[in-house]
Design goal:
Layout: E1 5-9, H1 15-22, E2 36-39, H2 51-59, E3 66-67, E4 70-71, E5 74-76, H3 79-89, H4 91-133, H5 157-198, H6 204-219, E6 222-225, H7 230-239, H8 243-252, E7 255-259, H9 261-266, E8 269-273, E9 285-290, E10 298-301, H10 304-307, H11 313-323, E11 327-330, E12 336-340, E13 345-348, E14 355-358, E15 364-367
Parallel strand pairs: 1-7, 2-5, 2-6, 6-7, 10-11
Antiparallel strand pairs: 1-12, 3-4, 8-9, 11-14, 12-13, 14-15
Helix pairs in contact: 1-2, 3-4, 3-7, 4-5, 5-11, 6-8
Length: 380
């Protein structure tokens, strides 16, 4: 059983606000001041710009411990730069790494275009059904295609038409899920090739860097994963196979504080919003990659009110059915979700906003500070 916990946030605007909100959970495992590990790899080349974050933690009572020019109490994992420096020392590995990342990006683009087509079909079919049948909701669809087929001998013409639409929508949703699964399989296959072609995980330099990074992770009482580019964060952590170190930190009782991209990579799957598409009408949520899988049963969706039409039950049901067989959790700038896996327990702890939960039925539930969120299944 893991003794640690997660404190997920959507997209808080500044390190100062984050430190102030999470202050009650900033404790050392030995009862003293905590050692705080900053993971800013999602900032890419700006990874070293953690000064404001350090000052924010100082301001809420976490003291620095400067030794030899380095802060031993509030320190940066620096995994993005360690990754880039390793590639600079090993040009053959760098060339293969670049080749495979290009292949992965091409794979994503292919599947994104394919899923856009299926997603639009689902939305169009739902609108068509609503126009002709009135109160039709995606949340009322059977979860599996097989459940949509029922004896038809006593059905009216209207009911038969409804059944045909239900069957088509169910098939389209199943196609989306299967398409996402095929993309995940393709990306995993491409990711595994790097180690196989380079033997990087037996290289002395790689093993040394991984050991140093693991030591930094296991020294921390609090690990803070900041927002930014989820791809840069995931790729750098994955390159040094640091998932196991993070799991061990959780087992030892470490508190994970995560914002936006940091929250995404801790899930089993990373679902992002295509905010940069030149055509606003084609912006869509899309599966980006497999996450680190430290937390299961929840799909975190940051920037909730900015990007999710939470007043549209069809949209909520579509997202839940496509991206999660369990609960989708929408988080805003001031939303904080505390999850204690060992209990298991999840509750909303943000004083200024709630946590939004929705499932395959398309029903939205808001949980305010102190309210517990059920984790066992989709019932509330």
């Amino acid at each position: 059983m893991s003794a640690g916990r997660f404190l997920f946030n959507g997209n808080i605007g500044s390190p100062g606000a984050l430190a102030a909100r999470v202050r009650p959970w900033l404790r050392g495992r030995n009862g003293g001041p905590p050692r705080v590990l900053l993971v800013t790899a999602a900032w890419g080349a700006g990874e070293y710009g953690e000064g404001a974050a350090r000052e924010a933690f100082n301001a809420v009572g976490v003291p620095s411990d400067w030794q030899g020019g380095f802060d031993r109490a509030i320190y940066n994992l620096c995994v993005w730069h360690v990754w880039q420096d390793y590639l600079a020392r090993h040009p053959r590995v760098a060339a293969i790494d670049a080749e495979l990342r290009a292949a992965q990006e091409a794979t994503r683009r292919f599947y994104v275009e394919k899923t856009r087509f299926h997603a639009e079909r689902v939305r169009q079919a739902a609108r068509y059904a609503r126009d002709l049948l009135g109160e039709f909701r995606i949340g009322e669809l059977p979860v599996t295609v097989r459940d949509a087929v029922r004896p038809a001998s006593s059905l009216s013409g209207r009911d038969l038409f409804r059944r045909a639409l239900v069957r088509e929508l169910s098939h389209d949703l199943a196609d989306l899920v299967q398409n996402d699964q095929r993309m995940m399989e393709a990306l995993s296959e491409e990711e595994a090739v790097l180690a196989a072609r380079t033997g990087v995980r037996t290289d002395g330099d790689w093993l040394h860097q991984q050991r140093l990074l693991t030591e930094r992770i296991l020294r921390a009482d609090v690990i803070c994963l900041f927002g930014g580019d989820p791809g840069a964060l995931l790729a750098s952590l994955r390159f040094f196979d640091l998932r196991h170190a993070l799991i061990e930190a959780l087992r030892r009782g470490t508190t994970f504080v995560s914002v936006s991209a940091g929250s995404l990579v801790l899930c089993e799957r990373i679902v992002i919003y295509d905010n940069f598409s030149p055509d606003p009408s084609r912006r869509e949520f899309r599966l980006h990659d497999k996450g680190l899988g430290l937390i299961g049963g929840l799909q975190i969706l940051p920037h909730c009110m900015d990007r999710i039409h939470t007043d549209d039950p069809d949209n909520l049901a579509y997202l839940s059915r496509r991206f999660s067989s369990r609960l989708c959790v929408g988080l805003n700038e001031e939303s904080f979700l505390l999850v204690e896996p060992a209990a298991p327990l999840a509750r909303s702890v943000g004083a200024h906003d709630g946590v939004f939960v929705f499932g395959p039925d398309g029903v939205k539930w808001r949980y305010d500070a102190g309210e517990q969120i059920p984790l066992s299944d989709g019932s509330r």
